[in-house]
């Protein structure tokens, strides 16, 4: 059980995950330039079709970009450096000559090296060290995390928030991933890129990636979820000429397929990056490469990449992504594994995280973040107040409060005069609440006549009172009381996370408020005016237990616990 990772700037982050762009110093060794002709092969002056901006080669709506630059999964790249491939096209690589684009109808065109440096988010050209010299090695089983304060300043270069990766030194021959499209983001800010992929982690890193992007689409004049395929190495950037719109809840797949593989060298000389919206049967143009001489030894189970976000509310909403990613060895076996988790500095801090769902039958990677959703209170002192009813009546003849499917209880209020429970506070955040498995993994238990505790590792956190407590990988999503005002039943729902027993806090509020902080409500917001309130720190903590007076049945305390990661 460990916490967040590596607070390094994105200048390192780009190279760390293989997102390198123009040559090491941003210059080009190709003297032919964008409009030259090499023999009978016409050089491409811009993306593989027509020249000029507005082809939606990348998200060019991000504010403050230098002229001609667009946002890509590789950072700020000049749009003249992006080649778009049509169906049947092949990118031909050869170490001794520039890359060429072989059209489906047979003609070959040289892809000139990029004449523009790749830039950081402040418009500064990256140095050779920043572009290609910052690859790192991490023990394959190690999960490196450390706390990152919300006050951390924005990174110098840009947008990597979190990665889940694993090293395969012998090389890989393929990747397959299935995931779902999250809810929409805001109409401003972004783009946001979410993707799995393969990388050669050498100084001139090559990365192959199917990409799900929340971005501005120039033809629709609106932000949409788009599915596209990418390849990047040194000063060459290639993407699908035809991308597709996908929609919240759609199931999509991404594959990176190697062929002509040599098990002794660990190299596949040909690769194809493809993806599909399985729900709708549509696909963007695949990207096919030949003449590859690099060994793909790093697998990304999932990456969250964020640009131009000034408020967490601009981020996509739930459900969060769950990537079922596997990779193929050079011997042809498909494998899954526990990924190394890396988290990078971002501002604003939106609790970006990636975590392994290692207790499932299939190894999944969840991408989570808090999207600024507001807390809300549900009163249940005189009737049911339930945002989700799919579990049926889990406490017969009792008044119930129940949060929605991706939200947890983070506070409880009671009447000062008689201790009768009044309302619960429900919260959503990517660090905790998006980690709910599903509502059907829930259990209800009564603590009306004695303790009902699914975890004893927290000790007797409120001696002399009846306690209801969820298991270490559960949190309270609902609570009930009898019609005469006695706390009775807890509803516990499972998460892809664990609470940290040694860091829990008992908040007694039977005779006055005991309040943590709530970033979503803001300082000083009274969500139950006139009532005593117990409240956890939110985002970041959950209510794991509730206690009541043994005789009166009135409220006494809540147990607030931070969460770790199930490894």
Give the topology, please:
Elements: H1 10-16, E1 37-38, E2 41-42, E3 69-72, E4 75-78, E5 82-85, E6 90-94, E7 97-102, E8 108-110, H2 128-132, E9 160-167, E10 172-180, E11 192-200, E12 206-217, E13 222-233, E14 236-240, E15 244-246, E16 251-262, E17 267-277, E18 287-290, E19 298-306, E20 321-329, E21 334-335, E22 340-343, E23 353-357, E24 364-368, E25 376-379, E26 385-386, E27 398-402, E28 408-414, E29 421-427, E30 442-446, E31 452-453, E32 466-469, E33 474-482, E34 487-494, E35 498-499, E36 505-508, E37 514-515, E38 532-535, E39 541-548, E40 555-564
Brief descriptors of the model:
single chain; 567 residues; mainly beta; eleven-stranded mixed β-sheet; nine-stranded mixed β-sheet; 41% strand; disordered N terminus
A few lines on this structure:
The protein is mostly beta strands and 567 residues long.
Describe this structure in words.
- The protein is mostly beta strands and about 575 residues long.
- The protein contains 2 helices and 40 strands.
- The longest helix has 7 residues, at about 10-15.
- It starts with 9 loop residues before the first helix and ends with a strand.
- Mean pLDDT is about 80; it is low at about 1-55 and about 130-160.
Mean pLDDT: 78
Helix content estimate: under 10%
Largest sheet: 11 strands, mixed
Give the helix/strand class: mainly beta
Rounded to the nearest angstrom, the distance between the terminal CA atoms is 6 Å
């Amino acid at each position: 059980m460990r916490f967040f990772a590596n607070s390094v700037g994105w200048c390192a982050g780009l190279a760390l995950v293989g997102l390198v762009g123009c040559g090491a110093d941003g210059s080009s060794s190709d003297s032919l330039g964008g409009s030259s002709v090499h023999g009978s092969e016409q050089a491409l002056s811009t993306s593989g079709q027509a020249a000029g901006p507005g082809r939606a080669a990348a998200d060019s709506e991000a504010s403050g970009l230098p002229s001609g630059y667009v946002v890509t999964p590789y950072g700020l790249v000049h749009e003249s450096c992006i080649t778009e491939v049509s169906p049947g096209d092949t990118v031909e690589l050869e170490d001794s000559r520039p890359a060429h684009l072989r059209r489906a109808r047979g003609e070959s065109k040289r892809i000139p090296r990029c004449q523009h440096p790749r830039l950081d988010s402040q418009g500064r050209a990256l140095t050779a060290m920043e572009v290609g010299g910052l690859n790192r090695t991490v023990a394959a089983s190690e999960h490196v995390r450390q706390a990152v304060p919300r006050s951390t300043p924005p990174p110098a270069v840009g947008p990597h928030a979190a990665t889940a990766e694993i090293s395969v030194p012998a090389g890989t021959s393929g990747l397959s991933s299935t995931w779902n499209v999250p809810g929409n983001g805001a109409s401003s800010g972004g783009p946001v890129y979410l993707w799995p992929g393969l990388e050669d982690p050498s100084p001139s890193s090559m990365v192959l990636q199917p990409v799900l992007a929340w971005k501005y689409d120039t033809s629709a004049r609106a932000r949409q979820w788009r599915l596209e395929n990418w390849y990047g190495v040194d000063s060459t950037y290639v993407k699908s000429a035809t991308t597709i719109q996908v929609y919240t809840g759609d199931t999509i797949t991404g594959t990176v397929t190697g062929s002509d593989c040599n098990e002794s060298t660990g190299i596949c000389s040909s690769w194809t990056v493809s993806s599909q919206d399985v729900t709708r049967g549509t696909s963007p143009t695949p990207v096919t490469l030949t003449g590859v001489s690099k060994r793909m030894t790093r697998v990304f189970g999932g990456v969250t990449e964020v640009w131009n976000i000034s408020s967490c509310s601009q981020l996509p909403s739930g459900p969060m992504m769950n990537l079922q990613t596997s990779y193929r060895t050079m011997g042809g076996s498909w494998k899954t594994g526990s990924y190394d988790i890396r988290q990078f500095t971002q501002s604003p801090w939106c609790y970006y995280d990636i975590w392994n769902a290692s207790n499932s039958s299939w190894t999944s990677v969840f991408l989570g973040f808090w999207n600024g959703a507001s807390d809300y209170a549900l009163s249940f002192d005189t009737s049911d107040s339930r945002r989700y009813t799919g579990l049926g009546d889990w406490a017969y003849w009792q008044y119930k409060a129940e949060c929605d499917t991706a939200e947890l209880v983070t506070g409880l209020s009671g009447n000062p005069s008689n201790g009768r429970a009044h309302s619960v506070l429900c919260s959503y955040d990517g660090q905790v609440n998006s980690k709910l498995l599903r509502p059907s993994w829930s259990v209800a238990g009564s603590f009306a006549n004695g303790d009902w505790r699914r975890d004893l590792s927290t000790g007797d956190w409120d001696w002399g009172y009846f306690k209801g407590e969820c298991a270490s990988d559960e949190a309270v999503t609902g609570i009930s009381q009898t019609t005469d005002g006695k706390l009775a039943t807890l509803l516990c729902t499972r998460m892809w996370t664990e609470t940290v027993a040694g860091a829990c806090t008992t908040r007694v509020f039977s005779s006055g408020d005991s309040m943590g902080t709530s970033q979503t409500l803001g300082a000083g917001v009274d969500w139950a005016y006139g009532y005593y309130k117990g409240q956890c720190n939110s985002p970041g903590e959950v209510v794991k237990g509730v206690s009541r007076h043994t005789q009166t049945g009135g409220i006494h305390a809540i147990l607030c616990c931070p969460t770790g990661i199930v490894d």
